[in-house]
Amino acid sequence: MASAYYYLTGKAKWARLFTPDEKYKNYKIDLLLDAESKKKFAESGMTMTPKMAEEGEYITFRRPEAKLIKNELVKFEAPPVTDTEGKPVDKLIGNGSDVTVKVVVYDTVKGKGHRLEAVRVNSLVEYQKPDDSMPAATAAAATEAAPKAARKAMPF
To answer: How many separate domains does the chain show?
Structure first.
């Protein structure tokens, strides 16, 4: 089979699309698929195993920063992330955002492989970084007290 493209829709659970993760160097998104996309996923033959979370079953779609293909190192940019009008999205995608992912599926010696090609944000729930609500004086006091407490806890 030649490469085939699939468009799968659902709720984003965890999205890291602008910079790759530090450990495996992948751009990725966890997606809670809707009913129609679950059927498409099953028909595609992709070999990924769904994982369970509080919200339900999800699939992690990945795009490597670089991959060895036929003894040649191929580098990949971050997947394009756009809104419904095709305009680039530069905001962080929060959990619960409605998205559509474009995934290419291809044959490998281990079965069907995939690569995340693009993400369209249908309804954005912008990720909000945790608020550092601790006052500066309290933070400084906690920082100063920490080494003393650590010294008392040491067994030697």
So the answer is: 1
Kindly list the distances between the CA atom of residue 104 and the CA atoms of 2, 7, 18, 142, in Å, as whole numbers in the listed order.
Answer: 10, 9, 19, 50
99-126 confidence digits (pLDDT tens): 999 999 999 888 899 999 999 999 999 9
Here the tokens at position 101 are 């992912």
Q: Which tokens hold the place of 65?
A: 């920063």
To the question of pTM greater than 0.85 for the whole model, the response is: no
Residue 35 phi/psi, 5° resolution? -60, -45
CATH label of the domain that carries residue 76: 2.40.50
The closest of 15, 25, 41, 40 to 75, measured between CA atoms, is: 25
Q: Which domain holds residue 28?
A: 4-153
Among residues 31, 35, 36, 29, the alpha carbon closest in space to that of 55 is found at 31
